[in-house]
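note to self — DONT lose this again. spent like an hour looking for the file last time. sequence + predicted structure for the chain T wanted, 661 res
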Amino acid sequence: MTAFPVAGSEKFANKLLARDDELLAKISPALKVHGRNAAATDSVDPLTYEVVRHRLWAITEEMGDAVKRMSGSVVVTDANDFGVAVMDEFGNSVQVGLYNTALCASMDMAIKWTMEHRSGNPGIRAGDMFICNDPWVGGGIHQNDVSLFAPLFIEDELFAWTCAVAHQVDLGGVSPGSWSVHSEDVFWESLPIPPLKIVADGRILADVEDAYLRRSRMPALVALDLRAKVGANNVAQQQLTRLAEKYGAGVVKAVMRQMMDDAEFRLRARLRELPDGTWTGLAYQDQARQGDRGLYKITVEMTKRDDSLTFDFTGTDPQVDGLINCTYAGLRGGIVTVILTQLCGKIPWSTGGLMRCIRIISEPGTINNCTFPAGISKASVASGWATTNAVHECVASMLDAEETDDPSFTSVCKGSFGLSLLAGVDQYDRPFVTMLSDVMAGGFGARPDRDGVDTGGEVPIAAGRIADVEMNEFSYPVLYLWRREEPDTGGPGRFRGGVGGSSCMIPHDTTIKSIHLVSSASGKAVPQAVGISGGYPASAAHEVIVRGSNIRELMASRSMPSTLRAILGAHEVVPPALETDLDWDDVYFYEWSGGGGYGDPLRRQPSLVLSDVNNGKVSSRAANEVYGVVLTTETGVNDTETERRRDTLRKDRAGVAGASS
């Protein structure tokens, strides 16, 4: 019987994946691994290196295109919630795609586990592919992340691996979409699948596929996504084989190793440019499951010494009964996401080399390093996301301490992901389940020299995007009243965080006159996108259902409301976790946050505040109460009153008696 990775109670420092030589000693002798070619490593000339390196990068792009072209899921085709990678023979990531970067932190974990536990039985052979959605093994952050990885053999030797992973709309569990807001442990949710051979000799195994699809409410769509990942792996393996035939397997392997070595070298060089020190970050999760009223803490202390970083999560709260926990894969993904986007803008994304610079200290049994069978269905956008926020705060604070004329970091970006999952019968009388991607248009954090990007996206998915309103209405039985940017959602600061947005919709063109809703959004009790260097946090998330509204009457009279106040009915504030139904006359509104601010908002140029008010980024009230800018209809900014107002606000901060009188 295979021993699955269930962490013990002991504290461990730097839970390293097995080194190549250690892994080699654990795998079956029947699996021949491509030998090291020292001569080739030394003899790759710079021109050949760059040509092959760029070809490997292009292969990941082709993999991404293959997934998008073959998938039928809007989450994949329009939101880019998937990942691809090319890895060496031991599963070390050589090149990852510009999609969901958090997922690339778990692919290598799954492959190394597979080599250790599947090389003898059932064996790893040419034409095989393994499916996995077990976050304790790797390959994803929660069960909806299903990875498919394939070994590439050259002359009967394991030469490399390719992997494609994508979010699946439903894989079972008690709630549609597999996000079980009532979850107390993993058995309420989609059960994890450890690495399982689903393709042998180039053919999908029908019995294994049937067992996989049987758990889903949307088996046809999940089956199509499976074939999209098979296709992506096939494309990559064809191109890698051609590359090895053209340049020689030894040369290609040498380039792979050099890519990881180069990424490590360049990141270490970048770290040596930064000051040594220790920085702390803090993030929270509100409500572990529907009905819970708890607030749960993730804390990290980041220490930078010379050319390495240590992340110590000691003090993080214990895992809880609910769906917000994440495994070590989620914790690791939270770190990798920030390293790639904040430190590696000019460094190739060869995470197999970059992670050599990172040391992790964590306590098993905590909410971002939970043990089986903790609930993890929300892991990717709960404790995994909060880990990203806490790490981002540390890295941004470190970069803020650097003396430079060209700062290249942001405050914490969109602090939470508000899940809105719809299910029911669509306008074509077919069952549907979907996750709305609108919230991916979050605001970026402010930089030390400019405002954050408004509705620019999110850190984990570098190439993320949102589906068009028209695509959502075409695909699902909803009608949008609006989707727009919202004022005051970006964190105030000398430089303002990018604003977030909101969507408002109603059920439409469905014969059952109702839509099932699963809502799960952190960051409603505590804002999650903190500011840097005195900048304020972005807004909290906010959702409202207007029950029994008059929206149909308004639309019949050719009146389209533009605010919730214009819609009559019972306004019900949605808690962080709720499963309910949207009836025919209900209106669903959800607002997501922007990015954190940078610097004291009282130091923001009044002319920029005026521009923000005119452009709908900041309200007149916030201009006065937060930025201390007094506006008039005649002159715009009243400079004298603004200076007086800001002086009063500074005295209020200092507790000067009578300052506001």
